[in-house]
Design the sequence.
């Protein structure tokens, strides 16, 4: 059986990148596992409770910055990225239409966890097969995709896939940030890539645009204020002071990416799996809110949205209806859905009813003012005649 020092690791690395490209990854980089420079930042983030009720983040502690504690024997991380921007990029306009449910771009197609994990596993199998062919049988690997114990942005940065932007996502000068990341932990001492120069400079556009001021300092996101966290991760009631700021965002938020100048250079995805499902994309809040649990499960089969469950889905949509322009239909559906799911959803429905009723009063008082004005003008016209 071959020993590791008889393997041409440079050639193997070259092949890994070619196999990764053939599997549909736009970039493959390799990093070592020394992330100690990120530990202080991670500890401060946890100490500030910026992780909210994602208690698993605290439970994993520094394991996140120590890949070989998570998977013993790991020597390198093969970091990959895959574009997800769909060809029809007319998403931002839905943010301006208060009666449409805005769903984050990455979530409109098939569940990326499944797509990326399967391809990473295939990459691991390719490596194992190539080394088995030369009698080396000790290869071990483990794929991760958006997995809590992995510090994916720090790893991607080390592997040269991009730099971490002030919004805390990975950015690339040629590709922007509309891509998924995945990691293959492996026990081979492959040659590593170098980090690239950061490109945020003096820009603060993402910090300024954030609807809830969740980017509390450059590179520091308070998850408790972030709409992605509030609509996807948090199982608690959404804080009332943040609800009006969420607008019609019912699953995730893209604002910090939409405004980022580097996303002008983003490529669209070649994966049909990530193309938007019509049943989710650009749908009215009323249509989405009227789904039964069975319809929700059927329409989100194979989608990342299914992971949040029906209760959070209804909770989020109730908030968005509260933020929508007033309509009788909104009030009627809110009333009809009360008592159908849970007390938590009902609390959000009650809030939405209050918002809609206040808008109705405001609208009626504006109409009365308008009518008074018209009467005054008409009287004046009669006198002058
Ligand atoms: S996803 Fe939205 S809420 Fe979260 S940091 Fe970005 S802009 Fe702010
Ligand atoms: S918007 Fe500006 S500051 Fe924010 S990530 Fe993009 S380049 Fe960096």
Sequence:
């Amino acid at each position: 059986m071959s020993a590791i020092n008889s393997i041409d690791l440079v050639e193997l690395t070259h092949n890994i990148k070619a196999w990764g490209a053939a599997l549909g990854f736009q970039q493959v980089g390799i990093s070592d596992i020394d992330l100690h420079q990120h530990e202080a930042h991670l500890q401060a983030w946890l100490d500030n409770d910026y992780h909210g009720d994602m208690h698993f983040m605290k439970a994993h502690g520094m394991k996140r910055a120590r890949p070989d504690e998570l998977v013993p024997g790991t020597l390198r991380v093969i970091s990959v990225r895959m574009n997800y921007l769909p060809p029809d990029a007319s998403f931002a306009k839905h943010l301006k239409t208060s009666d449409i449910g805005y769903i984050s771009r990455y979530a409109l197609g098939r569940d990326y966890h499944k797509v990326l994990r399967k391809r990473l596993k295939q990459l691991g199998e390719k490596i194992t097969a190539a080394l088995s062919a030369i009698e080396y049988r000790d290869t071990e690997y483990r794929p991760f995709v958006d997995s809590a114990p992995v510090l994916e942005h720090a790893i991607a940065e080390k592997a040269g896939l991009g730099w971490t932007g002030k919004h805390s996502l990975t950015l690339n000068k040629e590709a922007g940030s509309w891509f998924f990341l995945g990691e293959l932990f492996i026990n081979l001492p492959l040659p590593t890539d170098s980090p690239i120069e950061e490109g945020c400079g003096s820009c603060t556009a993402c910090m300024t645009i954030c609807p809830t001021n969740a980017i509390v300092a450059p590179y520091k996101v308070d998850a408790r204020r972030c709409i992605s966290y509030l609509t996807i991760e948090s199982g608690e009631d959404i804080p009332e002071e943040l609800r009006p700021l969420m607008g019609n965002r019912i699953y995730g938020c893209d604002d910090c990416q939409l405004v980022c100048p580097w996303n002008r250079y983003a490529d669209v995805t070649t994966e049909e799996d990530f193309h938007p499902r019509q049943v989710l994309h650009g749908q009215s809040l009323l249509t989405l809110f009227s789904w039964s649990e069975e319809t929700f499960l059927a329409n989100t089969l194979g989608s990342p949205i299914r992971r949040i469950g029906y209760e959070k889905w209804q909770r989020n949509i109730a908030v968005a209806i509260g933020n929508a322009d007033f309509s009788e239909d909104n009030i009627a559906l809110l009333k009809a859905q009360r008592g159908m799911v849970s007390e938590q959803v009902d609390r959000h429905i009650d809030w939405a009813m209050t918002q809609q009723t206040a808008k109705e009063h405001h609208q009626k008082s504006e109409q009365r003012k308008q009518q008074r004005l018209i009467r005054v003008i008409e009287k004046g016209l009669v006198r002058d005649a």
